[in-house]
Write a structure and sequence with these properties.
Elements: H1 19-32, E1 50-55, H2 61-72, E2 76-81, H3 93-101, E3 107-112, H4 117-122, E4 128-134, H5 140-154, E5 161-165, H6 172-183, E6 187-191, E7 207-209, H7 212-216, E8 221-224, H8 240-247, H9 251-254, E9 262-264, H10 277-280, H11 288-306, H12 313-317
Parallel strand pairs: 1-2, 1-3, 3-4, 5-6, 5-8, 6-7, 8-9
Helix pairs in contact: 1-5, 1-11, 2-11, 5-6, 5-11
The chain binds N-carbamoyl-L-aspartate (NCD).
Length: about 325
């Protein structure tokens, strides 16, 4: 790959990306973050292009972040939520997508509860497809905004100790983060109650433990995950109170990590279940809102690069 762009027409996951493509996205996002600090937050990079945001699952951060990124790049946007459309009349996913494609969009951003839906559509449509979360499979833009946040705070990935703690079994965020962080040579340890840890996940090149204290020991980055109640996560332990007692991140537990360790969470947080409010709101340790801010920059970078933009050119065009 040359530094000129991404190899695929789509962004379906982190698994198919090269480390150099990940770095290209992060570098481009870093240069785009500045747009958000301008008084007039708009550059003409995607003027005349149309993006359809197709969300079949609940979303706050991801949906608004894509829409913000699209607007800052001057793209036209159409927002689709399954409720209120012909999906309620029984129209199939492929028919819905083909009908939307007939309106000539340039991008389709899709979130769906079934793994593989973005891949299925990407292979049947000419439109560029971006995966905004497919079931428990991948959430590539989340992993990229996490990587951008880690790089800003730690300056490197090589040898960095990252503990990812919580509902590993149902998390698409963790799968994308494992691929992303291991490709960048970070050392990843996963921690969950045995009932929320997938069998054989070590084969992805990560350490695994059910002991929270062991996972925190010497960690540079502590990434907490929500228990995915809607995917059955709550069945795996007796009560929220017990979960917090064993796997909740408190000030006391955080002392086991490195003194400069950062705390991350993809949101939505369940305060008092996987994280205490004291830590979630600790401006010295928590980078949770920086993750959200970086999400816009990462999504701008992806839209721009998939549209064929070269990393140096957008500033000149702007
Ligand atoms: C996550 C998701 O939906 O995958 N949130 C997000 O996109 N930032 C994580 C979650 O739902 O727990």
């Amino acid at each position: 790959m040359t530094k000129a762009g991404l190899r695929s027409k789509d962004l379906l996951g982190i698994e198919p990306l090269d480390p150099s493509e990940i770095e290209l996205i992060l570098d481009t996002a870093e240069s785009m973050a500045e747009i958000g600090k301008r008084e007039i937050k708009k550059v003409p990079a995607l003027r005349g292009r149309m993006v359809v945001n197709l969300f079949f699952e609940a979303s706050t951060r991801t949906r608004f972040s894509f829409e913000t990124a699209e607007k800052w790049l001057s793209a036209d946007t159409l927002n689709f939520a399954a409720k209120g459309t012909s999906v309620e009349k029984g129209e199939s996913l492929l028919d819905t997508a083909k009908n939307l494609e007939a309106m000539s969009p340039d991008f389709l951003v899709i979130r769906h509860s079934s793994p593989g839906v973005p891949h299925f559509l990407a292979s049947r449509l000419k439109t560029r497809v971006i995966n905004a979360g497919d079931g428990a499979h991948e959430h590539p833009t989340q992993a990229l905004l996490d990587a951008m946040t880690i790089r800003q705070r730690k300056g490197k990935f090589d040898g960095l100790k990252v503990a990812i703690v919580g509902d590993i079994a149902h998390s698409r965020v963790v799968r994308s983060n494992i691929w992303c962080l291991t490709k960048l040579n970070a050392k990843v340890t996963l921690c969950a109650p045995p009932t929320l840890m997938p069998v054989d996940i070590e084969s992805m090149g990560v350490g695994v433990t059910s002991d929270f204290e062991e996972a925190l020991d010497g960690a540079d980055v502590v990434m907490m995950l929500r228990v995915q109640i809607e995917r059955g996560g709550k069945m795996a332990f007796p009560s929220s109170r017990e979960y917090f007692a064993r796997y909740g991140l408190t000030r006391e537990r955080l002392r086991l990590a490195r003194p400069d360790a950062i705390v991350m969470h993809p949101g939505p947080m369940n305060r008092g279940v996987e994280i205490s409010s004291e830590i979630a709101d600790d401006a010295d340790r928590s980078v949770i809102l920086s993750q959200v801010a970086n999400g816009v920059a990462v999504r701008m970078a992806i839209l721009y690069l998939l549209a064929g933009g070269s990393p140096q050119a957008w500033q000149e065009k702007a």
